[in-house]
Amino acid sequence: MASGETERMSAQDESAKPLFPVLVTGQQSDVKSQSLFPVHSDTANKPAIDLNNDLEWLENKSFLTTALLLTEEKNQSVPEQISVSPTPSSTIETSFTRQSAAASESSSEEADVAQTDIKPLNLKRRYSVSESDEEVLSVAKSTKASDTSVSEKKAKDKKHKKKKKKHKHKHKESRKRSPSEEVKQRPAEKMIDPSKTFIEEIPGLEAENAFRVDRSCEKSLWNYESVYKGHIARYFRLTNNCFGNSNITLPSIFKGEKHKNTVSRYYTKDKRKEMRAKGVFVAVDGKVANETAQYISIREKDAKGGSISKSREEFTPAGIMDPATSMYCQGKGAAGKESTEVGSGLDETFERTAYYNRRLHEDPSNVKLWLEFVAFQDQVFQDARFSAKSVLNRRLRDSFQPPRACIEKKVAILDKALKANPSCLELQIEKLAVEQDVTDSTSLAKQWDDLLFVHSADVRLWRHYLQFQQSRLSTFSVGRMGKLYHRCFRTLSPILEGKVKVVKMADTDNLEEEMIGVFEQYCSFLHQSGFTEKAVASYQAMIEFNLFRPPSLNLTPTSDCVAVFESFWDSGVARFGEPGAKGWAAWVENSGQVSTHSFIQVKTDAEQEEILQQDSALWNTWLKIERLCQGAHWLPWRPDTTKEETEDDCEDLDRMVLFEDVAPVLFRLRLSASCSRLVTQFLQLLGLVQQQGTEEYATPFHQLLLEAMHQVSTSHGVNVGVKVDSVWQPRTELVQFVQNTLRQSAAYFTGWYQTFFTSQLLQLQACKHGCQDVASLSEKQGKEVRKFGKNLLKETQNRNDLLLWDGYIRMEWALGKSKDALSMLQTALAMFTSSVTDQDHAGMAGLCSLYRTHAGICLNFTPTELVSLTGRKPSPPADCKKKVVASFVCLMDTGKFSASKEHTVSAAQVLKTRRKFQSILKDLINSPEDLSDSFGKMHAVQHVNCFALFELCAVGLGDSLKVFESSFQLCTLASQTASSPQIRMAIKGVEKELTHNLVTLLRNYASVEAVSLGQIRSRLDTGLSRFPDEPSLLRQLVDVESGSWLAGRLRRYFEQATREPASVYPVLFEVLAEMQRHAKLVATNTVHANSRGDSEQTEGMSDTGTVHRVRAACERGLQHKVAQHCPLLWRLYLHFEAKYGSIDRAEGIFYRALQTCPWAKVLYLDGVELFATKQFQELVDLMTEKELRVQIPLEEVELLMNSEPQDAAAEDTLEEES
């Protein structure tokens, strides 16, 4: 190319210098044909390049200096010289340093480098790296300036590409040829196996050859400063704790990164499929030929339990053949792979799904089966809830909540069920309950209203509707809920009276009992929301309206009776439970004359002054005063006419209850059992819980009534580690009111109910001292209770009440006065044994109870409410057993009991007594009329108890257990032939009492004799299979299993029992069992720490696992419909988490509790106690917004705290002046 043209091109491209100007030689070619490495320039016209200045920017640590790519293959080659030092990656920096140093010493050496003629090379040829850093590979390629146009160059490129593809195999051969004679003369490079990683794996490898050449031409290193981080090996630390000492925590390296932890064990798809696979039925072969065999032969069984005709062992004599070989020996072909895979995929879940689909296709009107299929979807979607991807990062509550896909599938199944059963109310209620979490409140409320409009006479639907409206925080308010309850009573009362006839209505006979349940739910709602005065006034009005209604108004319509009752309510006369109350009928007979009476007045001024003087924080002072007023203000305020008070003198208008507040809930009762149940519910509202539960606990609505531990009669004595109102501590005024209620009820009722309310007076004497059982009383308190009991027995109506005698004697026994109780028993038996006939069920029930108590004291047993496996007592002597046998002989012979005569009983007398027991037992159970009576039912229960104790002392424990088994068989036969539901319910009650007494007898006998724990467990399992919601049996189970640290059996039972519970009690006792276990563990560690003298708990068993167990039990239980609206369960969970867990987690639990139980004022007060420093004002405002009762405003407390010193000084000044 001409020199002028060269200068012109140089001037144009001065700013666009080549990216890698290694050397510039000769004439410069055209810009368009210039390559990335311009090695074909003329060196004659320009001086050599100073490598120190021009090659410093090439010192890139990540750039691998292997052979450079050459220019196009068809350019003419000019012998030039390029000096490149291809060093390995490990020594690249050293090579460049040495290269730069050599260039700076002598630039002339670079110009005189020997030139070597090199043949044209392929572009893709790569050169090996020399073993020495000083070796230089000199390559050159001639180029020729071309004046070819752009179009000709593109044509040549296309032709060159085709030629490359055609001669691809020639390129491979060219790679094997050495590049030059100099390369051939170099020592052969030692090839290293690329599969080797460590130096020790390559024998005979010298240190100078311990490197690997990367021939992959990493082009990314030309553009980036370092190697890609993904190609560098890293390690991850699985824990930040030091092994051996968990107190040392290492700092986390990845503080800002979020790591995804994966869990493969038990969470992979194959493992979950294997765990769900249906097991193989096997059975132990009873015929063992060789007794010295080292194994027990088993045989496979089919799904129905029958043995398979031919097993594989018949064709595998030594048991060494696999299934395929065994089938080959039988002359059968091996099972195909496809059939094996299909069979393995049909696990138990798919089998049950196919079963439901087949059954529902055959019988679409089976509502129970549809509901079972809906409940089964929780098990189907179990994999989605416990998948490996989200099991670690998911909240605990989400692990037990069904996913949205499960809910949508349930809704689809229910829609299909409703197409087959459009008029089924149970399916419609279930669908509304399922859609509760996925449908907006407005649409859901409209669906409820539409359903209620069609089925307005269904009480159960009303209760579901009221529960739904009561548990929605967004739309809840006390005033709105009160109107809904009043609307319910206005709708159902005309139907109960017969004024309104309903075409389709189920359970018409139980309408009265259902309405009593609604009334109890309404009064409990008022009490829990803070309006205890309205709840008490509603019960007073209902009892006066039904128990003490004038006889002249019996045939009067209910609306007219309500109008007349208003005059009695506003007259100011004493009402039910108040001192001097005579009743509505007595007031009418006296022509409306009002007699003077004393009001129950509760003053809390002195106690409030003590609280204000403590100088506590504002929230603490308000909380104490609020709880004080709530416990004291339970009776409606009325003006005292003797003190000339009027309604204007009422300081708090919420304490005054008008007639308009109680009139909408008044309705008429016809049965005496309903009236007694009404009084019993009133006593439970006041705090006196009877020991024996009622039949109402097995309903899903019983959860709304529980807010404190003392309301569960069988929970006393259970240490759960937290205090949630475990003991009822009434004020003196409340004890007086309850005592008046019991006496007035006993005066009204006769027979069994009179005895029951009178015996509750004895229980009240123990409860007023803050004790749930008599054994917890002090000696002084015990004397007071004994004195009260004796005075009670001296009353005329109680002298011949044998059940009341038995109750007092058992109280003496529980107080530890066994000798006094035994002497009193002997006196009572001598008086009443010969005077009671077999037809007198009341007398025989009391007499059998006395004989049972006598046998228990003689056998050194413990009272029923104090039975425990922890205490061990000495065995009774043989004379005591003979004494018990002789006493039961007197019971059956109706002879006179004598404690002084000899206790010698012949075998004939024993046989005669046994036959008499058996005949009376058959007569009692086979007579439905007797069991329908309360005394007759109790007579049957006590008769079986006496018969079992007789067999225990005469023969042994085995015959005693046979008595209960035969009794259960008789009850089953009687229940099958019963003619009415009432009789079946009575028989069921007998079975329940007998089951409880059977377990109590076994536990009592185990305390004095050696009894297998398996016998107690088997009877408990049998009883709980019949009555899974019985609180007394659940408490027995917890007591039996809590004696051991092994809780697997108890957890397995509750896992089965809480899958589909019918009431809140199985869920509640599961939580109590786990909390009791945790409290026991904490107490054990504390004792060990105290014994060593440590200030902190440094050793012992960790409670981490038990804390997680309690959380899981609470979360799992709160997902059930029968427990998710229970304030007591939420309070237990909240207090446990706040004490043993995280306060932040407890705050989340608190707000969840408010969303499901917005009416429970105790939850708000617990929130103030636990989170007052953050949300005190917010909680008080929320209570005011939801119209909950606030006894004392917050502003008033602030004024009292600020004005306290001034008021005290003013009072002192007034006293001095006076």
UniProtKB/TrEMBL annotation:
Instruction: Name the keywords, alphabetized.
Output: Nucleus
Q: Where is the composition biased (Basic and acidic residues)?
A: 176-191
Q: Which GO terms describe its biological process?
A: negative regulation of RNA catabolic process; regulatory ncRNA-mediated heterochromatin formation; RNA processing
- Its domain of life? Eukaryota
Question: Region annotation Disordered: residue ranges?
Answer: 74-117, 132-191
Basic residues: bias regions: 156-175
- Quick one: a GO cellular component term? catalytic step 2 spliceosome
Location in the cell reads: Nucleus
Polar residues bias spans: 76-99, 140-149
Q: Does the keyword Nucleus apply?
A: yes
Q: Which family does it belong to?
A: Belongs to the NRDE2 family.
This chain's protein is named: Protein NRDE2 homolog
What is the native source organism of this protein?
Answer: Littorina saxatilis
